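Study this pair:
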Amino acid sequence: MQGCDQRCTFCIVPDTRGEERSRGIADIVAECRQLVAQGVKEITLLGQIVTSYGKRGWSSSFSLSGLSSLSDTLKRELQPSPFVQLLDAVHEIEGLERIRFTAPHPKGYGDDLIEAYARLPKLVESAHLPVQSGSDRV
């Protein structure tokens, strides 16, 4: 993904790179498959706030629509985030050994992402948390 929708007072990314934009899962998986076919063993998913992947204009391939007894709010809570759906799709690529991602934001670590660390053996067990401060003292 590119861009950022945050407006941190000390950051110029939204003004220089624009609003968040995410590529589709199929496009990313196709590129990853091509790289793996060329011998790549590790993929790093990258974005200004990578855990915000797919939040703008997202149409999910994962559906809970058949569960009509669930409220819309509960369906949203149960559905994996678009980022976790991307991790799941990339994880399925034969021959890929490791998946990393950078740079997340702590607010993107929902229960579904934490659970993905336990469920997806190719997802490297590390968490890059970039820390910034607009304070000279800090």
In short: The first helix runs from residue 13 to 17.
